[in-house]
Design goal:
The chain has one domain: bsu32300-like (Four Helix Bundle (Hemerythrin (Met), subunit A), Up-down Bundle), CATH 1.20.120. The chain is built from 7 helices and no strands. The chain has helices at 4-24, 29-33, 36-63, 72-81, 87-105, 112-121, 123-134.
Length: 137
């Protein structure tokens, strides 16, 4: 059985991160790119948001015996196979994981225009996944 306190804590942090990201999304591309604090914060809070989702997925997959997993993308497949996400959301989730990997491992070559576009176009995808985990409370 999934421990609700684990999910509640991560969902609470995720909500705080998304509020910060929403505020950062209001800047024009030019305003965003000219300020290292803005794009640095966006990169970090996007990373933390995706990490929180991955942590919740691993917790639920383990506690609900959804199946074995080794990588974050394996979790997406488990949630898809069990009907917790549809194919469209699964594809978005996989792209999020790939984006998180870029933020962590390719940080020297991040295209900040892409970070800005993610802020403008993909925060609702993070919220949709948060709702998936909220159903386990």
């Amino acid at each position: 059985m999934t421990r609700p306190e684990v999910l509640r804590r991560r969902l609470s942090h995720l909500e705080a991160y998304l509020n910060i990201l929403q505020d950062l999304s209001r800047y024009s591309l030019e305003e965003f790119l000219e300020n290292p604090e803005r794009y640095g914060a966006a990169e970090r809070f996007l990373q933390l948001s995706i990490e929180a989702l991955t942590d919740m997925a691993a917790h639920v997959a383990s506690d609900e015996n959804l199946g074995p997993f080794e990588r974050a993308k394996d979790l997406v497949d488990l949630f898809l196979a069990h009907g917790y996400v549809d194919e469209a959301l699964a594809q978005k989730w996989r792209r999020m994981i790939g984006f998180r990997n870029l933020l962590v491992h390719e940080y020297l070559d991040i295209d900040r225009r892409i970070v800005h576009r993610v802020l403008r176009e993909n925060l609702d995808d993070l919220r949709a996944l948060a709702r998936v985990f909220a159903r386990f409370l």
